Amino acid sequence: MAFLNLRFSFFLLVSLVGASVFFQPVAKAQDTTAVHTTIQDTVAVVSTQDTIHVVTSAPDSIITPKTIEPTTTALKTQDAMPVIVIPTTPKEIIYTRFIEVGISANAYRGDLQAGFEKFTGGFHLGIQWLKKKRLNGAINVQSGYVSGQNIDYHYNGTVAPGDKTPNPNSYFKTSIFTVHYEVQLNLIKRRNFRLFVAQGIGLIRFNPKDQFQNALSKDLTSRADGETYSNLAFMLPTQWGFQYFLSNGVGAGFKMGWYHPQTDYIDNISKWGNKPGNDKIFVCRFTVMVPIRLKAEK
């Protein structure tokens, strides 16, 4: 009986010691609520204090809240050790250079047409820079046509004694080729939209022809004696427009304005013209912008 009591006492003592070890309370960190996030073999301990402790095989890393972003990326070590959780932010691509392709409707106003009434087509190709908030530049090349006609046109001015009788052309059609650089001022600029005005300087090449496709510049009977001109002239385009961009950088836009050619011979008529001043060309352009990035920028 004494032996049984001894065995029972020893078993009870071992049980009490084991229970005290197993049910020992865990110390609670003061003023800290720990949230454990396990990613494979990594445990990141997020504290309510002003730091984040990242648990790894190396000493604890401390990251200040200023460096913490909503997105985190886990980098796994080669030896299957715990992963370091590094806060990262997706890199935003900002496009500053675009190829611009478009079509346009062009209209002429001058001695053979009082208003911008007849529109013809054109094709545009250019480069657009959008590096600055307010002022940006662009280079544009256009190929197209303009034409005008007034079958009742006649010269209303006086003719000096000895001069030939005025015989101006009543119809013309000319191809135009332009190249210009412009400075654009952003009136409104948002992440995916902008409204702007532009002023440029460039060159325009033209070659007016009659209804039989004869070059009027070579027809001396269609102009006053000694009147000649060059087929190349300066132009001062003034335009306004807007553009909208998608998240991938591709955009679409609309632009309209006047080319202001510095010549009165777009229609081959000047001295025998009834309308003073240079001829005008009005342009409405629809464009698509495609972003381009240099290899060094990728």
List the helices and strands and how they pair.
Layout (H helix, E strand, L loop, with lengths): L1 H21 L12 E5 L2 E5 L5 E4 L5 E3 L7 E5 L8 E5 L8 E13 L9 E11 L5 E15 L21 E19 L3 E14 L25 E4 L2 E8 L5 E8 L21 E12 L7
Antiparallel strand pairs: 1-2, 2-3, 3-4, 5-6, 7-8, 7-15, 8-9, 9-10, 10-11, 11-12, 11-13, 13-14, 14-15
Question: Would you summarize the structure shown here?
Answer:
This protein has 298 residues and is mainly beta. It has one helix spanning 2-22; strands spanning 35-39, 42-46, 52-55, 61-63, 71-75, 84-88, 97-109, 119-129, 135-149, 171-189, 193-206, 232-235, 238-245, 251-258, 280-291. It folds into 2 domains: 33-91, no CATH class; 97-297, Porin (Beta Barrel).
Could you list some keywords that capture this structure?
Porin, mainly beta, 298 residues, elongated, 15 strands, 8-stranded antiparallel beta barrel, 4-stranded antiparallel sheet, 1 helix, 2 domains
Description:
This protein is mainly beta. The protein folds into two domains: 33-91, no CATH class; 97-297, Porin. 7% of the residues lie in helices and 44% in strands. It is built from one helix and 15 strands, in the order αβββββββββββββββ. The chain is elongated and about 90 Å long. Mean pLDDT is 79; it is low at 26-80.
Distance linking N and C termini: 89 Å
In percent, how helical is the residue content? Answer: under 10%
Number of domains: 2
Look at the structure and give the CATH class of the largest domain: Mainly Beta
Output mean pLDDT: 79
CATH architecture call of the largest domain = Beta Barrel
Low-pLDDT stretches are 26-80
Structural class: mainly beta
Q: Please work out how many helical segments DSSP would assign.
A: 1
Shape: elongated
Oligomeric composition of the shown chains: single chain
* Count of strand segments: 15
Strand order across the largest sheet = 7-8-9-10-11-13-14-15
Task: Report the portion of residues in β strands.
Answer: 35-45%
Listing every helix as H and every strand as E from the N terminus to the C terminus, the arrangement reads: HEEEEEEEEEEEEEEE
Fill in the CATH topology of the largest domain. Answer: Porin
Radius of gyration: 40 Å
